Amino acid sequence: MIQDIIINGLINGSIYALLAIGFSLIFGVARLVNIAHTAFYMACAYLIHVGFSYWGLSMPLAIVLSIGLTTIIGLICYRLFIKPIREYEAAVLIATIALGMVFQEVMLIAFKGHMMGVPPVATGFVIVGGVKVANQHLLVLGVAVLTLLATWFLLMKTRVGLAIRCTAQDSEIANLMGMNVDREIMIAVIVSVVLAGVAGAIVVPLRVIDPHMWLPPLIMMLAVVVLGGLGSVKGSFVASYILGFTEAAVAIGVPMGSFLKGSVALSIMIIVLLIRPEGLFGIAFEEER
Amino acid sequence: MLLTVTGLTVVYDRAMIINDLSMKVDAGELVSLVGPNGAGKSTTLRAITGLVAWEKEVLRKTTGGDVTLKGAVVFDGERIENVPAHKIVKKGLIHCPERRRPFRELTVLENLMAGAYLLKDKTEIQSNLEKVYRLFPVLHSRAGQVSGTLSGGEQQMLAIGRSLMFRPRLLCIDEPSTGLAPIMRSEVFNKIEEIRGLGITVLLIEQEVSTVFKMASRNYVLSSGKIIAEGPGADLLADEVIRKTYLGL
């Protein structure tokens, strides 16, 4: 049972981390609360379904194309709907909620709300520590960990990453260092949507695709972000695994626990907001200028 | 002339912050811009180094407030009043901001590297880093420390060091002594003298008039967005009206 919890926790945690880090990044760099973040995750899942089932593309090709297309859609959405109101946080919040709902309705019109699925890339299973683990789950875990490592490397070890982190902390000073803030924000948007796309791509064979699939991960992601501290990438990472493991422990350890999954996340969110509203690694906002 | 400002006017919505300001800085000089709180010293600097232009660009096509910038800023023969800050830096006009503003969660070394963002040549970055460490040994010993945990004086050293990481030709320092202990203040002023000794032109914005007047070759006195006097420190101090009304000495 412990092994079950560990493996499920790792997989859930990694998926939450992919989503929450993207969300945190975009919030940190541009102060954008992007509620539509998981809508891109959904868009990518649908695109893979279209590519694979309708157009008959091979699975890897469908995945890569879908992530690319999702990124382009994300950039277009940013340019058209978010950038003109970027200075107004409340307006951005409302606009992204609307954007998420537009995605949902478009999917509902295009695919009539049917539940759809995509076959797994890897079949079969292996025994890890006495537990049967589907190869698809291992693949999910591997891709997620690799993507997270790549993101860490990009942010911490490259010149672009330094510029993104500087912009996140003080965009005006970043500007004085010769960094083009508009460009850094664009890069952050791209990285964020790519991460959401990857999350959608690795989850697609495990979940049912339907127009409301963006809502449950949205709630989990917000719980993760509140626990980790808004805008803190490190906090999002740690909190993702805390929530992933807690969820797995409740689902497996408590009788009928899988019905409690959602409420666990929300309870953690409420407790954090009551006790430590800035989260584990929250940044205290300083008045700029 | 390295920097020539003619008829600079900055209006935020309807509030006129800078009114028809003209000033000049020649290569090799240390020029000061002094004046009481709210006189518009920082806004003048922000207009020169492109932060106002950047703000204008960010706010354009949005529903935000309105910024008007008139007049001419010429740096090294080029008009720059409508060029945003990140492009002006490339010309060597560097702005060391008010209240130091290090990237608080980044280490000292990362902050310095951010200053060298525009440099691609690793050897040049390394040699600039050594220069900065020679000027501010304390930064070397704290290279790995998160900059938010530095003392005020050390943060000021870091801010100045960061501005020196990219080939500065004109270094504009905004209120470096504010909020520092007296010993730290004189240390900072000594370092600014040293920087000038390295052949870097300095435009210094300060409230600590008595020290600055001894250092600067020329001074501009700003009040309510207008230059009301200019000249060497001794001349300004000799003028009773300026001394009492604007400098409070």
Strand and helix map with partners:
The complex is a heterodimer of chains A (289) and B (249).
Chain A: H1 2-30, H2 37-54, H3 59-82, H4 89-111, E1 125-128, E2 131-134, H5 135-157, H6 159-169, H7 171-176, H8 181-203, H9 215-228, H10 233-253, H11 261-275
Antiparallel strand pairs in A: 1-2
Chain B: E1 3-12, E2 15-25, E3 30-34, H1 41-48, H2 51-59, E4 67-75, E5 78-79, H3 85-88, E6 93-96, H4 108-115, H5 122-135, H6 137-141, H7 152-163, E7 170-174, H8 182-197, E8 201-206, H9 209-215, E9 218-223, E10 226-231, H10 233-238, H11 240-246
Parallel strand pairs in B: 3-8, 3-9, 6-7, 7-8
Antiparallel strand pairs in B: 1-2, 1-4, 4-5, 9-10
Structure description:
The complex is a heterodimer of chains A (289) and B (249). Chain A has 11 helices and 2 strands; from the N terminus they run H-H-H-H-E-E-H-H-H-H-H-H-H. With 289 residues, chain A is mainly α. Chain A has one domain. Chain A is globular. In chain A, helix 1 packs across helix 6 (159-169), helix 1 (2-30) runs antiparallel to helix 10 (233-253) and helix 5 (135-157) runs antiparallel to helix 8. In chain A, strands 1-2 form a two-stranded antiparallel sheet. Chain B has one domain: 3-Layer(aba) Sandwich (Rossmann fold). Chain B is of the alpha/beta class and 249 residues long. The mean pLDDT of chain B is 93. Chains A and B meet through helix 6 and helix 7 of A and helix 2, helix 3 and helix 4 of B.
